[in-house]
Design goal:
It is found in: Cell membrane. By secondary structure, this protein is mainly α. It has 19 helices and four strands. The protein has one domain.
């Protein structure tokens, strides 16, 4: 990279003020991309069950991620990656389309309407007010809960956990050779981290991929370059089917899409901001964080138009933050790699879940350090924090953990006759979450 290009990037993203550099940001962005690139393959598989074209969804997933990451790069200057959410795509395919018998084209139109609502509440800073009035202990619990969630997903993806009829979950039996690939990656990466080797996460993933290929556990791609699939089957279907969303059933679906995206991304962004040190204890939301929320609204709109499920801020952004990502250059790097993936998709098959699992487990350990900031001596702080922390991994959903944390906080404060100390927005959040839980339960029936 030329000196002039480096200077331009330093000036654009204010690297010196954020105590980072171009090399560190690019490594962080590459690490984040490798940790979240699985969505390029998982999303088409899930949405194809709803009758959508796999090829078109693959392209739509990449384009939505590009829009989201470019927005966080240039609007917010934050190292947070945005892409179609793994949880919302399952709700889209299995609950809305297959369960409620709503055509996928109409469901996309519902996402488009939800994204407009999403943008309005962001522009009018309603989301910002909610974040500012979340108690500090609860914010720290969100960061820790996401850490446990990330580690839990890593253990699951790496095959170190398995289902058990008696205990629900138990340790793997180690008969699967791919489990040993995860173990190799975890041990090797831990050694690199302990020795403080630069780019330790990236080197750990690269080494694990090489070992996987050499042992035959990861298949070598047959092609390096692939033709970009057509987007025609899904592009613009959300706009064409807007007239079909004005039914009681679709209004419920739109509200669920909106609320899940609202609180999922809000909880994730707060947790990531705490991990990176952007939010200090007791501080209000800085302008850059507010712009990240707006970036997610833009991405969700693009996602519906391209033909994919709603977007969200990715917890895997924590991997990039952990290796030093502090600015939008990290997000820009992710966007560039998503663009490249459109042409080199066969190579992405080398980065399996066993390759990324060790990184997620280690990053989870980083994020739970915020547990020390919680005041465990007060029940109104300790129990909501506890529910938030265990809710995210146990319910396998950040939004649920966030919801039960907020609801228990309000309930306890009222019972302790401290209701005047609770901000009105927290009461509003209580009833919104209550509606969300009821509506999602009814939608499944």
């Amino acid at each position: 990279m030329s000196k002039s290009s480096t200077n331009l990037l330093e000036k654009t993203f204010d690297l010196r003020a954020n105590k980072t550099n171009v090399r560190q940001e690019i490594i962080a962005g590459t690490t984040t991309f490798m940790a979240m690139s699985y969505i390029l393959f998982v999303n088409p598989n899930v949405l194809s069950d709803a009758g959508m074209s796999k090829g078109a969804v693959f392209v739509a997933t990449a384009l939505a991620a590009i829009v989201g990451c470019l927005a966080t790069a240039f609007i917010a200057n934050y190292p947070v990656a945005i892409a179609p959410s793994l949880g919302s795509n399952a709700f889209f395919a299995y609950t809305v389309v297959l369960g409620m018998k709503i055509p996928w084209q109409t469901a996309l139109a519902g996402i488009f309407v939800a994204s407009i609502l999403f943008m309005l509440v962001t522009v009018f800073k309603i989301r910002e007010k909610i974040i500012n009035n979340i108690p500090s202990d609860l914010k720290s619990a969100i960061a820790a809960g996401i850490g446990l969630f990330v580690a839990f997903v890593g253990l699951q993806n790496g095959g170190l956990l398995k289902a058990d009829s008696s205990t629900l979950l138990t340790i793997t039996d180690f008969h699967n050779p791919t489990v040993w690939l995860t173990i190799f990656g975890l041990v090797f990466t831990l050694i690199l981290v302990t020795l403080k080797v630069p780019a330790n996460f990236l080197l750990g993933m690269a080494a694990t991929s090489v070992v996987g290929i050499c042992t035959g556990l990861i298949k070598m791609p047959h092609h390096i370059v692939a033709t970009v699939p057509s987007l025609k089957p899904t592009f613009g279907q959300a706009i064409f089917h807007l007239p079909n969303v004005f039914t009681p059933q679709m209004i419920t679906v739109i509200l669920i899409f909106f609320l899940v995206a609202f609180f999922d991304t809000t909880g994730t962004v707060v947790g990531l901001a705490e991990q990176a040190g952007f939010i200090k204890r007791g501080e209000k939301v800085p302008p850059r964080l507010s712009k990240t929320l707006l970036s997610d609204a833009f991405a969700m709109t693009g996602s519906s138009i391209f033909g994919s499920s709603p977007t969200a801020a990715y917890v895997e952004s924590s991997t990039g933050i952990a290796v030093g990502g502090r600015t939008g250059l990290t997000s820009l790097t992710v966007a560039v790699l998503f663009a490249a993936s459109l042409f080199f998709s066969p190579l992405l098959g080398v980065v399996t879940s066993q390759v990324t699992a060790p990184i997620m487990i280690i990053v989870g350990s980083y994020m739970v350090t915020s547990l020390g900031q919680i005041d465990w001596s007060k029940f109104e702080s300790s129990f909501p924090a506890f529910v938030t922390i265990i809710g995210m991994p146990f319910f396998y959903d950040i939004a649920y953990g966030f919801a039960f944390g907020v609801m228990s906080y309000v309930l306890i404060m009222v019972c302790e006759k401290k209701w005047r100390q609770v901000h009105p927005i927290m009461y509003l959040a209580f009833f919104v979450f209550l509606f969300l839980l009821i509506a999602m339960n009814l939608a499944h029936y």
